[in-house]
Design a protein that fits this description.
2 copies of one chain form a homodimer. By secondary structure, chain A is mostly helical. In chain A, a hairpin with a 2-residue loop joins strand 2 and strand 3. In chain A, helix 1 crosses helix 5. The first copy, chain A, starts with 8 loop residues before the first helix and ends in a 19-residue tail after the last helix. At the A-B interface, helix 1, helix 2, strand 2, strand 3 and helix 5 of A face helix 1, helix 2, strand 2, strand 3 and helix 5 of B. Chain A binds a DNA duplex (30 and 30 nucleotides) through helix 4.
DNA sequence: TTTATATTTCGCAAACATACGAAATGTTTT
DNA sequence: AAAACATTTCGTATGTTTGCGAAATATAAA
């Protein structure tokens, strides 16, 4: 009878961050921004990514909405950087989530090849 | 001139795992399965989740496709468990990805409140 | 063999995501 | 003021995701 459970804030936040990370263009941008200690122009990114300017702009908007990047307006450019605070928050969330296993269980049969991965 | 970059396998795999993790129902299922060292019936899950049986079945199918769970047929039930091998793989991928920052950079201005998080 | 149970697949509808080019915005240079 | 530039927003097309209930599948119990 426990129907209609409320998801915990952690579960909801993992789902939100994961949605932001669910497209290779966005993963690439975050990887680049987190590696290069400085920031990055939209115009630089469009050169190396297989999408047009307006599409890239939407991906950047989504990452900004998710709180993972921030933009500094530096006319006529906009420099994008990692939002370190939320990046650390994401790290904690994922590490906690992925470490939650209490012990190793008995394998459960039927492990298939997964050729598509 | 470096247009049309190929995404690395790591970037693509993070995007795939993240897609699987981009819905609270699926995050909840993985959290539960990774915590409880044993397995879980679809019928038990439907009791505590705000979706119907057929919808839950689709979410389970997606997690299975992503390689994160596996099902042991134990008629007339199907027991689902974490796929430990790929769960560990995901852990490594995310930890590497989230630790890739080379140093702390100069903050980049324009940090907004993010009330929706 | 019929009935009950657990789960999945099918068919459909509504909402969302991804992509593009054209037009809009705002700034700098001429 | 006009031209050039970087970027975003708008409108639109197309595909994918999420959800449901009904029908299908397959096993167990009566």
């Amino acid at each position: 009878m426990a129907k209609k459970l409320e998801f915990t804030p952690e579960v909801q936040q993992i789902a939100r961050f994961s949605k932001a990370l669910s497209h290779p263009v966005r993963v690439y941008i975050l990887q680049k921004l987190s590696k290069m200690n400085s920031c990055c122009y939209s115009g630089d990114l469009v050169e190396e990514l297989p999408v047009g300017r307006s599409t890239l702009s939407q991906h950047l908007k989504e990452l900004k909405y998710a709180g993972l990047i921030q933009g500094e307006i530096n006319p006529p450019y906009i420099k994008y950087c990692i939002n370190r605070e939320n990046w650390e928050r994401a790290k904690k969330l994922y590490i906690d989530f992925l470490n939650e296993n209490h012990s190793v269980n008995i394998p459960c049969g039927e492990t298939e090849p997964l050729t598509h991965l």
